[in-house]
Amino acid sequence: MALLKVVDRDGNEHDVEVTVGFKVMEALRELDYGISAVCGGMCSCATCHIYIAPEWVTKLAAPMSDECELLDELAYKKETSRLSCQIEMTEALKGLRVTIAPDE
Questions:
Q1: pTM to 2 decimals?
Q2: Which CATH fold topology does 2-100 show?
Q3: What Cα–Cα distance (Å) separates residue 63 from each residue in 3, 7, 32?
Q4: Which of 28, 56, 84, 86 has its CA 20 to 30 A from that of 13?
Q5: Where are the domains of the chain?
Q6: What is the phi-psi region of residue 16: left when phi exceeds 0, alpha when psi lies from -120 to 50, beta otherwise?
Q7: DSSP 10-41
Q8: Contact 62, 42 (CB under 8 A)
Q9: What is the pLDDT along the chain (104 residues), one digit of tens a residue?
């Protein structure tokens, strides 16, 4: 298990345990303050939009073109925007801090 720090839409921070090898989306969609993840992780809906804490951005693999295309369509896109369905939790990401983006 790895610790994920999640800031919800109300600005409250939560510590969430995530199984290494699972997508961040899988942990977030189970939470009451989580995301909807309508497509179930198929990178086709962008309802798992999050912001990565700036100090973590370079520790993640670069987004693929399909993720970039979906992000470009979002009204609340930022430099640190990612889709949580595209981020696999690893030992190296223990302590990753994310903020759930506003609902589109």
A1: 0.95
A2: Ubiquitin-like (UB roll) (3.10.20)
A3: 22, 21, 27
A4: 86
A5: 2-100
A6: beta
A7: TS-EEEEEE-TTSBHHHHHTTSTTS---TTSS
A8: no
A9: 999 999 999 999 999 999 999 999 999 998 877 788 999 899 999 999 999 999 999 999 999 999 999 999 999 999 999 999 999 999 999 999 999 999 98
